[in-house]
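Lab notes, practical 5.
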Amino acid sequence: MSQVFYHYTELEEHPAGLWRITKPDERERYIDASYRLMRNPKRFLEAMLRAVKEWPKSMEASMTTPSLNQRAWMGHAGCCIAVGSPEDLTRLGWHRLTSKQQDKANAAADEAIEFWQSHKRVEAMPERSLWDA
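Output from the prediction step:
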């Protein structure tokens, strides 16, 4: 698949706040919320799958960018959509995870990426829940 481009104003991540600057007194809340989400692989996967469905243009632009760390971006999207954490604070939450927790979070991100790659269009995506597995 060729790289797909959209103007940033068309990307769902922009109004959702993935790149917003937070006030200093809000930072710890988002760092902790991201950490708590990412340390729970089932909840984290559900959040990323939600992003796959609710952010089709952001997904397409990001998942077709060859130089992008897709695991990291998928995790950022999941944390933003589930707990409102912007990208920079999600990265700080990531560093609170143990190596084992990071491995499990990466496996969840890989599963979400594979799901996106299998369907690529929202219309083709089946309803998916971990509880159905």
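Observations recorded by the TA: The radius of gyration is 14 Å. Residues 68 and 85 are 20 Å apart (CA to CA).
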